[in-house]
Automatic annotation (TrEMBL), chain A:
Protein name: N-terminal E2 ubiquitin-conjugating enzyme
GO biological process: protein ubiquitination
Key words of the record: Transferase, Ubl conjugation pathway
Domain of life of the source: Eukaryota
Keyword GTP-binding carried by entry: no
Domain UBC core: 4-148
One annotated GO molecular function: ubiquitin conjugating enzyme activity
Pfam families: UQ_con
Catalytic reactions on record: S-ubiquitinyl-[E1 ubiquitin-activating enzyme]-L-cysteine + [E2 ubiquitin-conjugating enzyme]-L-cysteine = [E1 ubiquitin-activating enzyme]-L-cysteine + S-ubiquitinyl-[E2 ubiquitin-conjugating enzyme]-L-cysteine; S-ubiquitinyl-[E1 ubiquitin-activating enzyme]-L-cysteine + [acceptor protein]-N-terminal-amino acid = [E1 ubiquitin-activating enzyme]-L-cysteine + N-terminal-ubiquitinyl-[acceptor protein]
SMART domains, sorted: UBCc (SM00212)
From TrEMBL, chain B:
Recorded coiled-coil stretches: 300-334, 412-439
SMART domains per UniProt: RING
Biased composition (Polar residues): 544-555
Mapped zinc finger ranges (TRAF-type): 174-228, 230-275
Segments forming domain TRAF-type: 174-228, 230-275
Segments of this protein annotated with the region Disordered: 1-24, 522-555
Name listed for the protein in its UniProt record: RING-type domain-containing protein
One GO MF term: zinc ion binding
InterPro entries xref list: Znf_RING, Znf_RING/FYVE/PHD, Znf_RING_CS, Znf_TRAF
Organism taxonomic ancestry: Eukaryota, Fungi, Fungi incertae sedis, Chytridiomycota, Chytridiomycota incertae sedis
Organism: Gonapodya prolifera (strain JEL478) (Monoblepharis prolifera)
Length: 148, 555
């Protein structure tokens, strides 16, 4: 962990504990490099009353490089979320920006869930899960759905 | 101008409070030199940047998180860098209009080539090393932004050392450089490990326990702590003799008291002979005329010389005795070896010694060792004299002369070897003898068994013959008539029994005679028809008689 990432993660951690965005709660942050965040499905969406957990793993040059974000424990059924927890979301990979924060990533994922109209697995789910690397950051993603 | 200054200052020393502890640690490691406080501080900063920031960030001073901002949470979000989330340091503006720390945006673009906020592509993907800012098309931020950042209030980084100074960010460097009295530096005195803040510096140097001082008297240099002890031992200091109150240098005191000082208490010149007088040196001349030892000092002196000589002699004699003792011990060990060898071979006892000596020319081990022990070590004979109790022993071929002082160890060894050989020969012969004896015994036993069997067979034969004879004698008596006289055959039977016991030939003759008598009478025994017809020739032949016996046995 570089000094820059340590400093920034410390700030973000304090921020997330002090005033977390709606529907987002910090579950655990045993060390600065891996956190678990609880997100609750927004009201009046398909995921209302459902609770999910996101695991953030931070690289040493965070925020210049994106964190690894996957669903754990309870994987939501969503066209962009594979059953192994991997999320097909551009800001987590190619479109990551150092200006993004943990809060903003959580809100983006919540918004992605909220905009879902049909609860189903991605069409290539079983094929992807069978061959996917451990970290979704090693996947070569193709982003085609601009509606979320 | 402001921007330029800010950019250049970014490469200067850091100023946030957590710097002070690090600086102090680094100072502890640094070898103190004659440099100014500021030099020492920058040296420590360089060290730290080299250790902690050389991997991830090239330039330690491009981040602003080292500053200790006053009321940091109240700082406007507009002044916070989107990348590091700290108040911007050396702010620069992108072509898309966003402002970041210069270091943050440079690194971001190097990685992604885009603005972190709106993802506008910025600069060339692979910027030149020398001036990344130019290749990324970055410009110093607007003056108003720079000014607002410069006016943020920060605390002195040496707050831990006691500095409570607060000022605008732009002035904190000059404060540390020229005003702050709480920079810490290690004391330059060898041995002193203390970190001293600038304010206490001069006073510490004046009072440091480890500062160097020079003794005014002997011109040697010491640390102050050592000097405290030195002042009571300096050899060049002028002191007063405690006895005669003469003034002199300390290093001369010992010489003075031992030879000159008239008041120093000394003993009489004859104290070694027993005079108990003790007094000041100047009174000695008064004492001597009355000293009882003075009158006989010539005699005492002579006695002393004689005594010394005798003592020396005694010493040398003691040494000689010790050497001789060692020699004797060695010889005793050699003898022990020889005795052991000979005892093991079970030689003749001591009283058989003379004969052995005469015959074999060798000596019994018992006798030898006894002679050695009796003779060699008896006080009367001297250490190596020949024994009187065994005058015959050295004779009879013993190969060393009686008046030799040493028994040659080589001869003793030969003895031992010869002895060993003979005893082993003896053992072998004894074994052979035993084997032969055993073999003979077995052969005799076999023979006697055979003979005994034969005798048994013959005895059985005789019994049968006797029975037959009795039978034969009975048959004619019954067959011919009861009147033919019972007395005759009874006597014949008794005679035949006696003869049969005497020998084979007699028995056969007897049978032949009986048969002849019976044949002549024309009587026959059933089953004996083949051999029954007797002939006078065969009756006298032993072998024929034997065959007859065989047939009889078949009955």
């Amino acid at each position: 962990m570089s000094n820059l990432s340590t400093k920034r993660l410390t700030k973000e951690l304090a921020e997330l504990q002090k005033k977390p965005p709606g529907g987002v709660t910090l579950e655990s942050a045993d060390n600065l490099s891996q956190w678990v965040v609880k997100v609750e499905g927004a009201k009046d969406t398909l995921y209302q009353n459902e609770v999910f957990w996101l695991r953030f793993t931070f690289p040493s040059n965070y925020p210049l490089e994106s964190p690894e974000v996957v669903f754990v424990r309870n994987i939501p059924i969503h066209p962009h979320i594979y059953s192994n927890g991997h999320i097909c979301l551009s800001i987590l990979y190619d479109h990551w920006s150092p200006a993004l924060t943990i809060s903003s990533v959580c809100l983006s994922i919540l918004s992605m869930l909220s905009s879902c109209t049909n609860k189903e697995r991605p069409p290539d789910d079983s094929r992807y899960v069978a061959h996917a690397a451990k970290s979704p950051k090693q996947t070569n993603w193709a982003f085609h759905d601009d509606t979320v | 101008m402001m921007d330029d200054r800010e950019l250049s200052e970014a490469s200067d020393a850091p100023h946030s409070p957590d710097r002070s502890g690090i600086a102090a640690r680094a100072l502890t490691q640094d070898e103190p030199d004659a440099g100014s406080l500021w030099n020492v501080l920058s040296a420590s900063s360089t060290t730290e940047s080299g250790v902690r920031f050389s991997i991830d960030l090239d330039d330690l001073f491009s981040t602003s998180d080292k500053y200790d901002y006053v009321d940091e949470e109240k700082i406007s979000q507009h002044l916070i860098c989107h990348v590091c989330h700290n108040p911007m340091l050396s702010p620069v503006k992108t072509s898309c209009g966003h402002t970041f720390c210069k270091g943050c945006i440079t690194r971001t673009i190097s990685l992604s080539g885009k603005c972190p906020v709106d993802r506008t592509r910025l600069g060339t993907p692979q910027p030149s090393e020398e001036s990344p800012a130019q290749s990324f098309d970055l410009h110093p931020a607007d003056r108003i932004i720079s000014n607002m950042l410069d006016e943020l209030r920060v605390r002195c980084p040496f707050r831990e050392n006691g500095c409570v100074f607060e000022t605008q960010r732009q002035f904190i460097k000059s404060h540390v450089r020229s005003e702050c009295e709480y920079l810490a530096k290690k004391c330059p005195n060898r041995g002193c490990e203390r970190l001293v803040i600038q304010r206490d510096w001069d006073e510490h140097l004046r009072s440091c326990e480890w500062r160097q001082v020079e003794c005014d008297e002997c011109k040697e240099t010491f640390t102050w702590g050592e000097f405290q002890n030195h002042s009571s031992t300096c050899p060049a200091e002028n002191i007063v003799c405690p006895h005669c109150e003469t003034q002199l240098l300390r290093r001369l005191l010992v010489e003075h008291t031992s030879t000159l000082c008239p008041r120093f208490p000394i003993g009489c010149l004859h104290s070694s002979f027993g005079c108990m007088w003790l007094g000041e040196r100047l009174l000695l001349s008064d004492h001597l005329p009355s000293c009882p030892y003075e009158a006989i000092k010539g005699f005492l002196e002579k006695q002393r010389i004689v005594n010394d000589r005798i003592t020396r002699e005694n010493e040398s004699l003691k040494r000689q005795v010790a050497g001789l003792t060692v020699e004797v011990t060695g010889l005793r060990q050699q003898l022990g070896v020889v005795s052991n060898v000979q005892n093991r071979s079970e030689w003749a006892p001591r009283n058989a010694l003379p004969e052995n000596n005469m015959e074999s020319g060798e000596m019994s081990p018992v006798g030898l060792s006894a002679w050695m022990e009796d003779g060699l070590f008896s006080q009367d004979e001297g250490f190596y004299g020949p024994p009187q109790s065994h005058p015959q022993l050295p004779l009879g071929g013993v190969p060393y002369p009686p008046h030799d002082h040493m028994v040659p160890p080589l001869l003793l060894q030969e003895f031992a070897i010869e002895n060993e050989r003979l005893s082993s020969e003896l053992t072998a012969m004894r074994a052979q003898l035993e084997t032969t004896e055993l073999r003979n015994n077995v052969a005799i036993m076999n023979e006697s068994v055979k003979v005994r069997d034969e005798i048994h067979g013959l005895r059985a034969l005789c019994h049968q013959l006797q029975a037959q004879i009795l039978l034969l004698l009975d048959v004619p008596r019954k067959g011919v008539g009861g009147s033919s006289g019972a007395g005759g055959p009874g006597v014949g039977s008794a005679t035949a029994r006696t003869d049969a016991l005497d020998g084979l030939a007699a028995a056969s003759n007897f049978v032949a005679a009986i048969s002849g008598a019976r044949g002549s009478r024309g009587a026959r025994i059933p089953g004996m028809s083949s051999s029954a017809p007797p002939s006078p020739q065969s009756s006298n032949n032993g072998s024929t008689a034997n065959s007859n016996h065989t047939n009889v046995l078949k009955l």
